Amino acid sequence: MKIGLLSDTHGYIHPKVFDFFKEVDEIWHAGDIGNLETAKNLASFKPLYAVYGNIDGHDLRVSLPENRIFIREGLKILMTHIGGYPGRYAKGIKEILIREKAKLFISGHSHILKVVNDKKLNLLHINPGAAGKNGLHHVITFARFNIDKGRIADLEIMEIERAS
């Protein structure tokens, strides 16, 4: 299964998202989508699995969860917007990870691309950075990867200078 992963679009979808995600089976969005139109545009392209973020309004909060726990290809995933990262998880996140035995933890919010192994909890954390134009980041980032029999492989990152 091929996954396209992004976060923090803030109402903007860079045109290169559609080419980079052309072969993915699903798009996962780790919050701060920005508006319902952005979510609908992504969902009309590929199946969308998303959580709401702190800037998302009522229209997104009534249709999306704050935390999403799901399984793909035998891999248990926890996705949330404000989640922190290994060693500095946001309040309550570590407890959910332990209880659910998630092996992939996805969060957004920081606008900083990170891929970190948490050896203590035996999981991989991915923050795809920020795919939108708003924020302090200088580079737009999003990712894609494969999941096969519970394993993540072929992680690729798209980086685009924000000025372009």
Which helices and strands occur, and which strands form pairs?
Layout: E1 2-6, H1 16-20, E2 26-29, H2 36-45, E3 48-50, H3 58-61, E4 67-72, E5 75-80, E6 84-85, E7 88-89, H4 93-100, E8 104-106, E9 113-118, E10 123-128, E11 139-148, E12 151-161
Parallel strand pairs: 1-2, 2-3, 5-8, 8-10
Antiparallel strand pairs: 1-11, 4-5, 6-7, 9-10, 11-12
Describe this structure in words.
With 164 residues, this protein is α/β, with parallel strands linked by helices. The protein has one domain: Metallo-dependent phosphatases (Purple Acid Phosphatase, chain A, domain 2), CATH 3.60.21.10. A 5-stranded mixed beta sheet has the order 3-2-1-11-12, with helices on one face. The longest helix has 10 residues. The protein is globular, with a radius of gyration of 14 Å. The protein starts with a strand and ends with a strand.
**Tally of discrete structural domains:** 1
Strand percentage lies at: 35-45%
CATH superfamily: Metallo-dependent phosphatases
The percent of residues in helical segments reads 10-25%
Radius of gyration: 14 Å
- Shape, per Cα inertia axes: globular
* Widest β-sheet, arrangement of strands: 3-2-1-11-12
